[in-house]
């Protein structure tokens, strides 16, 4: 079993959270970027000790410099997570969630200033963010109250996206995980309701990967080995360029896969337990981030270029107690940037943390001494 958070139990994480950033249909050309150094932004959260209690605070790193976004003074009852990052000009946008004593609410930080995306009485969470011109899109969930009685409050989770702070629902959607804007076209990746089963026991019926273009539903996407009864989970990330529509996700009983113009392609070297988190395309070259087993031994961060995996090393050994996952990918000229997390499991003292790989060479990101987690990455030319 994967342990997403070793040190602090995270409340209410959304399934298939996206590793969204400011999407670009095509990476800038080498000629354009030859004399323009890159600024590298990574979203995530750091483990902290506040007033004697363990907590977590949303954060982001710019070129390795840590900025804390979440509350660092109140108490452990205020936990915040940053899940997506986008950059537009001099503005830095981060999407995430803040958990209070009673509920969690979706939030967007613009240049460090938090903006609530839902009413104070409405539980919600944000999973990713995209900026196009003057429009800011955030993906996430709103948790509507279904029953409130002596046994507590029960919620119904509804996927939504916010455009410039206004929430929108998509009929029949079971997940909204990624938004990509290509000119005047808006693509949304997620999942739709389906009679397909989770596995051969029939457990967990009801979802299949899909995407929408300008509000119109595209036929749900079959998995690589689709034989009718099993569902293809959800699109976790979608991108578009002049050569087509690219999406990435996973089938529950098949290896992780990507879709190229609606055609499913199994990722080489992946197992049914592998994960995929983000996809980028530069011309006909396709890059996917995620994690898989390395020599059948343990989870290791990886990225695939045209379906050829590159395993990403850290300062931790690859063995049965190390878990590593790449949670976002970005292209800048000929350089490939990946953000992720690696740590030693089942130990009392945190070992590992958040990492950035540039062309498969790692840099560990600073934290507050208790571990950190990376969730998304964006790369932009320096001013």
Q: What distance lies between the first and last C-alpha atoms, to the nearest angstrom?
A: 44 Å
The topology string of helices and strands comes to: HEEEEEEEEEEEEEEEEEEEEEEEEEEEE
Strand order of the largest sheet: 3-2-1-28
Structural domains: how many: 1
Derived from helix and strand composition plus strand pairing, the structural class reads mainly beta
Mean pLDDT score, rounded? 81
Low-confidence stretches: 1-27, 198-204
> How many strands, which pairing sense, and closed or not: the largest β-sheet?
4 strands, antiparallel
Number of helices: 1
Label the overall shape: globular
Q: Portion of residues in helices?
A: under 10%
The CATH topology is given as Methylamine Dehydrogenase, Chain H
CATH class: Mainly Beta
Number of strands: 28
Strand proportion, as a percent range, falls in over 45%
Q: What oligomeric assembly is this protein in? A: single chain
Question: What CATH architecture would you give?
Answer: 7 Propeller
Radius of gyration based on Cα positions: 19 Å
Describe what you observe in this structure.
The chain has 383 residues and is mainly beta. It has a single domain (30-381), classed as Methylamine Dehydrogenase, Chain H, CATH 2.130.10. It contains 1 helix and 28 strands. The protein has one helix at 30-33, and strands at 38-50, 53-62, 65-68, 79-88, 91-99, 104-110, 113-116, 123-132, 135-149, 152-163, 166-169, 173-182, 185-192, 208-213, 216-217, 235-241, 244-249, 257-260, 263-266, 275-282, 285-294, 298-305, 308-311, 322-332, 335-344, 352-358, 361-364, 372-381. The chain has a 4-stranded antiparallel sheet with strand order 3-2-1-28, with no helix packed on it. The radius of gyration is 19 Å and the shape is globular. Residues 1-27 and 198-204 have low confidence and may be disordered.
């Amino acid at each position: 079993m994967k342990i997403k958070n070793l040190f602090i139990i995270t409340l209410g994480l959304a399934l298939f959270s996206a590793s969204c950033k400011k999407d670009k249909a095509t990476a800038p050309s080498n000629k354009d970027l030859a004399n323009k150094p890159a600024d590298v932004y990574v979203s995530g959260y750091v483990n902290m000790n506040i007033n004697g209690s363990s907590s977590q605070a949303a954060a982001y790193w710019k070129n390795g410099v840590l900025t804390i976004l979440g509350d660092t003074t109140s108490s452990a009852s205020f936990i915040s997570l940053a899940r997506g990052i986008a950059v537009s000009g001099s503005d830095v946008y981060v999407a995430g969630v803040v958990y209070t004593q009673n509920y969690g609410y979706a939030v967007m930080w613009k240049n460090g200033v938090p903006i609530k995306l839902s009413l104070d009485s409405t539980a919600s969470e944000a999973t990713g963010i995209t900026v196009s011109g003057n429009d800011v899109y955030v993906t996430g969930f709103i948790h509507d109250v279904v029953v409130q009685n002596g046994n507590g409050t029960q919620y119904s989770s509804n996927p939504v996206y916010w455009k410039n702070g206004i929430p929108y629902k998509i009929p029949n959607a079971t997940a909204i995980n990624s938004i990509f804007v290509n000119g005047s076209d808006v693509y949304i990746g997620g999942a739709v309701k389906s009679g397909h089963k989770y596995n051969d026991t029939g457990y967990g019926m009801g979802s299949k990967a899909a995407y929408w273009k300008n509000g119109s539903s595209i036929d749900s996407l079959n998995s690589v080995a689709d034989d009718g009864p099993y569902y293809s989970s959800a699109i976790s990330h979608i991108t578009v360029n002049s050569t087509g529509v690219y999406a990435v996700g996973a089938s529950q009983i098949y290896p992780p896969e990507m879709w190229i113009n609606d055609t499913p392609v199994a990722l080489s070297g992946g197992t049914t337990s592998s994960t995929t988190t983000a996809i980028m395309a530069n011309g006909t070259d396709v890059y996917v981030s995620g994690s898989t087993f390395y020599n059948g031994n343990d989870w290791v961060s990886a990225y695939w270029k045209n379906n050829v995996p590159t395993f990403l090393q850290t300062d931790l050994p690859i063995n049965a107690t190390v878990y590593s996952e790449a949670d976002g990918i970005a292209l800048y000229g000929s350089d490939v940037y990946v953000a992720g997390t690696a740590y030693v499991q089942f130990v009392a003292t945190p070992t590992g943390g958040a990492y950035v790989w540039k062309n498969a060479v790692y840099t560990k990101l600073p934290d507050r001494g208790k571990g950190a987690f990376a969730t998304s990455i964006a790369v932009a030319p320096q001013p």
